[in-house]
Design a protein that fits this description.
Blueprint lengths: L12 E8 L6 H11 L25 E8 L5 E3 L11 E5 L4 H11 L13 E8 L5 E7 L3 E5 L3 H15 L6 E4 L1 H48 L1
Antiparallel strand pairs: 1-2, 3-5, 4-7, 4-8, 5-6, 6-7
Length: 228
């Protein structure tokens, strides 16, 4: 049986799984423990529906529990390198760490079928797809220590950097970032803000002119009343 799990955010999640089997204890024994041994008469009950797997007509069950933590970026899956070009947005920085240790960070914070290992070559490139939004993420780790995250999401880039910096115990990190779509959106917002500001100033000027005309009309009306 497959149970799909959809994580709304990139945060670690604890998965608690229970498997039910046979347990040599009956409802009568449970009642005796609660009522006689513990001296409880009115006990609040909680209904917990479970899927039971066992022999037909079985009334005795074992309970086996296991806890597994899903890593922070479990919603990102590997995809072929030639499937799609890397996103335009990127953030680039440099760390003084071996690629083998960076692979340890990857294996701890991502959920891949097999562990990522670096054997040889000038760099390690991972092309990923977000199972939540369908967006692309490309991570390039060069042997010189230069790291580049290609993504259109600034928040994702920030989460990746914070996660890596925390794992590698890095306090300060210089980076270079470029997100054309975000910059374009910012430019559009600034243009709208300028238009609103111009409209506000024009409206303020019009209101001032109208008030001045009203004052002049009041003065003229007072003069005519005095003449009468």
């Amino acid at each position: 049986m497959l149970v799909p799990i959809f994580l709304p955010k990139d945060t670690p999640v604890d998965i608690h799984i229970k498997e039910l089997g046979t347990l040599d204890i009956t409802k009568t024994i449970v009642h005796e423990i609660v009522s006689e041994s513990l001296g409880m008469r009115k006990v609040c009950a909680k209904l917990v529906p479970k899927a039971l797997v066992g022999y037909p007509n079985s009334v005795q069950f074992h309970v086996f529990e296991i806890t597994r933590q899903l890593p922070q970026f479990a919603m990102y899956a590997l995809k072929p390198s030639n499937e799609q070009a890397a996103p335009e947005g990127f953030v680039r920085f440099k760390v003084n760490e071996r690629l083998q240790r960076i692979c340890m960070w990857i294996n701890q914070n991502f959920l891949f079928p097999t562990d990522i290992e670096f054997e040889s070559g000038p760099n390690l490139t991972l092309n990923l797809k977000c199972l939540r939004t369908g967006s692309s993420l490309a991570m390039v780790f060069e042997i010189s220590g230069k790291v580049t995250f290609h993504t259109t999401s600034m928040s994702l880039a920030a989460d990746l950097i914070q996660s890596m910096a925390s794992y590698l115990n890095i306090d300060t990190l210089e980076s270079k970032a470029s997100f054309p779509k975000e910059e374009e959106n910012l430019s559009l917002l600034m243009e709208k803000l300028n238009s609103i500001e111009e409209a506000r100033l024009k409206l303020g000027t019009d209101v001032a002119d109208q008030l001045e005309q009203i004052r002049n009309l009041i003065v003229m009306a007072e003069d005519r009343i005095c003449d009468l």
